[in-house]
Specification:
By secondary structure, the chain is mainly alpha-helical. About 75% of the residues lie in helices and about 0% in strands. It is globular. It holds the Pfam family MT0933_antitox. This is Antitoxin. InterPro entries: Antitoxin_Rv0909/MT0933.
């Protein structure tokens, strides 16, 4: 696996250990994209954020 894959693996492991903090980060990134695009891609960002949360086993209950 390359450097990017190694980094992604480490991030996933950290997120599994701290799901509440990871949820806040995902929600913040999602909010930022939605703000900068005028919510034009809100459905896609919601879908992407849920996929990220599932990847580290979060319930995704953090509000945006």
């Amino acid at each position: 696996m390359g450097k990017l894959g190694d980094m992604a693996g480490k991030l996933k492991e950290m997120a599994k250990g701290h799901p509440d903090q990871a949820d806040k980060g995902v929600a913040g990134a999602e909010r930022l994209v939605d703000e900068r695009t005028g919510n034009k891609y809100a459905a896609q960002t919601d879908k992407g954020a849920e996929a990220v949360r599932r990847s580290y086993g979060s319930s995704g209950t953090t509000e945006r």
